[in-house]
Amino acid sequence: MQAKIIDGKAVAERIRGELKVRAAEFEKKSGRKSGLAVVLVGADPASQVYVRNKIAGCEQAGINSLAHYLDADTTQDALEALIDKLNADKNVDGILVQLPLPKHLDERRVLSRVAVGKDVDGFHAENAGALMLGEDCLAACTPSGSIELIKSTGVDMAGKNAVVIGRSNIVGKPVALLLLRENCTVTICHSKTQNIAQIAKTADILVAAIGKKEFVTGDMIKPGAIVIDVGINRHEGKLYGDVNFEEAAKLASHITPVPGGVGPMTIVMLLSNTLKAAELSLKAGR
After folding, report:
1. What is the DSSP letter of 196?
2. Mean pLDDT by 10 residues, the chain (286 residues)
3. CA–CA gap between residue 241 and residue 243 (Å, rounded)
4. Among 279, 239, 283, 246, which Cα is nearest to 260's?
5. What span, in angstroms and rounded, lies between the C-alpha atoms of 191 and 210?
6. 76 annotated active-site
C-alpha cells in the first residue's frame, strides 16, 4: 500500500475560494469589509514571515488587514492598551497577537485581553471552554485545519479510533476535542505515556503534534490509517514533520506531507474564523 497524499495547498485553495464569496456577501450586507488586526511585538524573523503570509491571505480572500508592529521593549500596559483599542474598533472583527511574545510580557494575560468574539486564534479561555462543552465557538486554527484535511479524504470519522500524540493547548487538546465532535473515540498520548507505539498502532486516525523530528515511525502506523502530521522541525536547513514520512506512507491510506500539509490550512482557518466573527457580529447587530 502507498498512501494518498493529502494536499493541504489544494484544500486550502478550495476553502479560500469559498471564503472569498462569503467575504463579498458580508461586505454587501454590512457596507464594509471584514477586518483582521495582526499585532507583532519585536522583530523575530519567523514571526515576520508568518505575519506577512497572514496579511497576504487576507488580501486573497477579500478581508481587510491591519498590521500593528510594536518594538520588542513594548510594555505590558502599552500592548494591552492597543488590544483594548482594537476590541472597541467596529471595523476589526478578529485580533491575532503573533506568538511567541518577548519574555517580559505575560502571554496569558495578553491573550485573555482579546475580546472573546474577536479571538480568531481560539486561545481565549472562554472559547477553549466552549469547545470542551461542544458549543459553537472560534476554535483553534491548526486543529480546525487538521479536521478539514481528514474530511477531505471522504472517510467517515464516526466510530473511528483516533490517537493524538501531544497535549499542548494550541494543538493537542483542541484537536482531540474536535475529533470527539466528529464522534471518534479519542486517546491522547504525551511524554509520560507508556507504550506509545502500541497505542499509536490502534489508530484509524493518527495526529502527531509533539515537535520531535520523525518521532512516529512505520512500526507505529496501523495499516490503512489516516496520518496527520502537524510537526514542523527544522534540521540542517530542511523541514521535517513529527512522522517519518517514507515509512508511514507505506502503511497509511492517507498522509499529510511536511511542508504542504497542515501548514497551509492554519492561515485559511484563521481567515475563516475572522469571517465567522464578522458574520456573528453582524447578526448580533454590533
Report:
1. H
2. 94 96 96 97 90 93 96 98 98 96 96 97 95 95 98 98 97 98 98 97 98 96 98 89 97 97 95 97 82
3. 5
4. 239
5. 9
6. no
All cell numbers assigned to 40: 507583532
* Three cell numbers, residue 36: 483582521
pTM: 0.94
- Hey, which residues does 35 pair with through a beta bridge? 64
- In this structure, the dihedral spanned by the alpha carbons of residues 231, 148, 39 and 274, taken in order and rounded to 10 degrees, is 180
- The question of whether 54 is a catalytic residue gets the answer yes
User: What is the per-residue pLDDT for 237?
Assistant: 84
Question: Which position among 93, 98, 160, 229 bears the catalytic label?
Answer: 98
Helix then strand then coil, in percent of the chain rounded to 5, is: 45, 15, 40
Catalytic option among 33, 118, 119, 121: 121
Cell numbers of 282, please? 453582524
Cα dist from 258 to 12, 13, 37, 62, 106, whole Å? 15, 17, 28, 28, 32
What are phi and psi for residue 45, nearest 5 degrees? -60, -45
Q: What is the pLDDT of residue 234?
A: 87
